[in-house]
Amino acid sequence: MAEKISRYKHDLPISYTLGATLTYEAFKLRPELLEKVYISSETQIDGGIQELIENLKAAGIPVLRNDKAFHILSPKGNCYVIGQFQKERKKLSGGNHLVLVNPSDAGNLGTIIRTAAGFGFEDLAIVSPAVDVFDPKVVRASMGALFHLRIEYFDAIEDYIKRFPDNNRYAFMLRVPTPLPKVPIQKPYSLIFGNEATGLPESYADFCQSVIIRHTNSIDSLNLPMAAGIAMYEFTKEAFNNYN
Amino acid sequence: MAEKISRYKHDLPISYTLGATLTYEAFKLRPELLEKVYISSETQIDGGIQELIENLKAAGIPVLRNDKAFHILSPKGNCYVIGQFQKERKKLSGGNHLVLVNPSDAGNLGTIIRTAAGFGFEDLAIVSPAVDVFDPKVVRASMGALFHLRIEYFDAIEDYIKRFPDNNRYAFMLRVPTPLPKVPIQKPYSLIFGNEATGLPESYADFCQSVIIRHTNSIDSLNLPMAAGIAMYEFTKEAFNNYN
Fold first, then answer.
1. Of B210, B170, B179, B222, whose CA–CA distance to A241 is shortest?
2. Which residues, including other chains, have CB under 8 Å from residue B224's CB and lie 6 or more apart?
3. What is the dotted CATH code of the domain comprising B14-86?
4. Among A30, A91, A208, B119, which is least packed by CB within 10 angstroms?
5. Can you say whether residue B192 is alpha, beta or left, with left for phi > 0 and alpha for psi between -120 and 50 degrees?
6. Min distance B122 CA to chain A CA atoms (Å)
C-alpha cells in the first residue's frame, strides 16, 4: 500500500518530528496528535528505539518502514525516525504571555519556545508575518517543548491587545531609559519582542512600558533568543525561588 | 599570480571571515590582523562593499578578485566577501572570566562570545577538548565579537586554577541547592559551564560554589548559550545599571 508523503507545507494540517528523541517526546506529551511513525531501513532496532516502537504499537499508532519518507522529509540524512503529527491550534489563555512580533528564524523560534517552557510560560502570541511554528525546523529546535505551549497567531498587535487589554505590556527595545532590573513587575504581564533584524518599532513605547537590557557597545544587540531568555528569567525568578 | 587558498584547518596560522559585514567588523576592530580580502566576481561593488574596499586599499590590505576562494571556503554560496586574518593567541588577564569546559558546538561558542562581549567579559578560558574558536563558523556566529576578547585554551581545569587561584569560582550545574539569584557575588569571579550534552562533572562542587539556574521540568536543561547569557547578565547587572 503506497503511502502518500508530502514535504512539509504551511497549509497542510500535519507536520513532522525529525528524530527518535523528538518523536518520543511528542509521543510522551501528546500521543493523541501522533498519527504515524516512519522508520528507515537503516534504523537499528534496539535500546530506546525498540522501546519507542513497542510503546507506539501498544498505543495503536502505526509504525511504518518507509525510506521514501526520509528522502522527502530529511534529505540530509542523519535521521532514522520520523513522526507525523496533527497540528493543533489552541487559543491563548489568560495569564502571563510571551509575544513575538514578526520572528523570522526557525531555529531562534524553537530555542525561544524551549526556554519559555523552561521558565513556565505556557502561552506564546506571534504577530504575523512570521515563521511557521509547525515548521519541522522549529519543532526540532524546540526539542519538543512546542507541545507544552499554547501558541496563537495574530494579524496585528492591536488584535492581540483587544483580546488581552488588561495584561501589562513590556516592550523590549534599544535606546530607552528603563533597564530590565529596575522595571516594576506587574502581573499579568506580556513580554514583547520584535524581529531579529529590526526590533520593535518605536511606537510600541506609546502603549507599552519600554524596557532595555543594557549591554556594552561592543555588540549591536543581544540575539533574540538571548534577550527573550534573560527577560523571562528576570520576570519569573522570584517565583522560581519560592516554590520549593 | 596564483594564490594558494587552503580550506580552514585548526593548525593553520590563519582563519577567515565569511561575509562582508563580518569582514568589515574585523577590519574596524583589528586591521593589523587582516592579511587580504577576497571578492567574488559575483559581488556587486556598491554601497557598503565599495566603502569597505576603499578603506582596505587605503590601509594597504590587498583586495583580490578570486572565485576559487569562494568555492573552497564557502561552497554553499551566499557569501561575496572573505577576509583572511592571522590568528592571535592572547593570554588571559586578571579580572572576571568566563570558563567553558569542553564546549563542542561552533554556533553555540560564537553566540556565547557575542553575549560575553555584550556583558563586558573580556577574557574567555576554554578547557580542551573543545571546538576551535577560530573555526570560521565560530567567527561568523560571534558576529565579529571574537575580536574583542582574549581567549586562551587550557588542557585541564587544574591548569586554569593554577594560573588564577584567587578567582571566585562559580560552577553552573543541575541538581544543586543554590539558585542563581541568591548566590553571593564576589569579584573577581569565574563563571564555569560544562559541555552541551554532559554539563559539568559533580566533582566541580568540591572546588567551586555550585549554582543552579532553576527551570520547570518541562525541559531537560536550558541550552548552553542561554545558561551562560543569563548568568553573565545576573553577575554584571549591578554594574550596568550604575554606569550612566
1. B179
2. B103, B105, B108, B112, B193, B196
3. 3.30.1330.30
4. A91
5. beta
6. 10
A-interface mutation test, from B25, B96, B212, B216, most A Cβ less than 10 A away: B216
Terminal C-alpha separation, chain A = 54
Query: Are B215 and A118 an interchain contact pair (Cβ–Cβ within 8 Å)?
Result: yes
A222: helix, strand or coil: coil
Chain A residues touching B179 at Cβ < 8 A: 237, 240-241
Digit-coded pLDDT (tens) for A100-148:
999 999 999 999 999 999 999 999 999 999 999 999 999 999 999 999 9
Question: Which residues on A lie below 8 Å from B117 (Cβ)?
Answer: 216, 218-219
Question: Can you tell me the distance from the alpha carbon of A71 to that of A75, in angstroms, rounded to the nearest whole number?
Answer: 5
Length of chain A in residues, anyone? 244
Q: Which residue of B has its CA nearest to A178?
A: B241
Least confident of A38-52, A163-177, B50-64: A38-52
A242, pLDDT greater than 80 = no
Residues forming CATH 3.40.1280.10 domain(s) in chain B: 97-242
Kindly determine whether residue B145 and residue A219, on different chains, have CB atoms separated by under 8 Å: yes
- Residue A244: pLDDT band (50, 70, 90) is very low
Distant-in-sequence, close-in-space partners of B126: CB < 8 Å, separation ≥ 6: B99, B100, B103, B133, B151, B152, B153, B154
Q: Is the predicted pLDDT of residue A1 greater than 70, yes or no? A: no
What is the tens place of the pLDDT at every residue in A79-99? 999 999 999 999 999 999 999
CA distance A46 to chain B (A): 22
Report whether CATH 3.40.1280.10 matches the domain A97-242: yes
Helix (H, G, I), strand (E, B) or coil at B222: coil
Which residues of chain B fall short of a pLDDT of 50? 244
CA–CA distance, B103 with A227 (Å, rounded to integer) = 22
User: Distances from the Cα of A134 to the Cαs of A5, A58, A213, B15, in angstroms?
Assistant: 17, 27, 29, 37
pLDDT band, residue A243 (cuts 50/70/90):
low
For residues A203-224, give the mean pLDDT: 97
Work out the mean pLDDT of chain A and round it to a whole number. 95
Q: How many CA atoms lie within 13 A of B77 on its CB side?
A: 2
Q: Where in chain A is the domain with CATH 3.30.1330.30?
A: 14-86
Residue A45 corresponds to which cell in the numbers above? 532496532
| Interface contacts (A, B; CB < 8 Å) | 97
| Cβ within 8 Å, pair A222-B115 | yes
Q: How far apart are CA B219 and CA A114, in angstroms?
A: 7
